[in-house]
Amino acid sequence: MRVASAVPVEGYGVAPQCGILFVGPCGNDQSRIDALRSLGFRVDESRDIPTKEELAAYHAIVVRAVPNGSLPMLGTRLRARPHFGRRVLVALVNDDVSDRDKREATMSGFDQTLPDSCSARDLAAHVLRLLRGYPEYRCVLRTPKGRRKAA
Predict the structure, then answer these.
(1) Is-contact 136 87, C-beta < 8 A?
(2) Measured between alpha carbons, how far is residue 77 from residues 7, 74, 88, 128, 148 in Å?
């Protein structure tokens, strides 16, 4: 699936609505993506890591871990990208991933590792809690009735 482009705004091109990008195998999370959209997030997914310009449109990047993949290397590479800044970087990992691998991922750039079975509400809560510390990336969530709420 192709990543939708967002209209850049002042600063690093962050869109005013909270944007989440799922990176990794596509098609597995449609119910989670729909639930996040109903909560007011703008959600896209991509098989591959997009360019720095496309990444700049999102507040949070959620990486689906693949078996035998190196989360520490991926976290380091993403954090080293130009203008990646202090965006939220979350890994969704299977239950069979060891605590040591999860710890190494968080030490190498991921803000949080969550189980792949977590709900959309859990993921939204973690993303909003992590975004709270970055006032320059304040985003706006739309309620289902169209009103705006500060994140």
Answers:
(1) no
(2) 25, 5, 14, 23, 34
Alpha-carbon separation of residue 112 from 8, 11, 12, 95 (angstroms) = 27, 25, 23, 15
Nearest alpha-carbon partner for 66 in 120, 105, 119, 107 = 105
Q: What are phi and psi of 107, to 5 degrees?
A: -75, -20
> 10-143 in CATH: which number?
3.40.50.2300
pLDDT in tens, 52-78: 888 888 889 999 887 777 888 888 888
Domain positions in the chain are 10-143
Condensed to tens digits (0 to 9), the pLDDT of residues 5-43 reads 343 333 444 346 788 999 887 777 788 999 999 988 899
Strand partners, 150: 140
The total number of residues shown for the chain amounts to 151
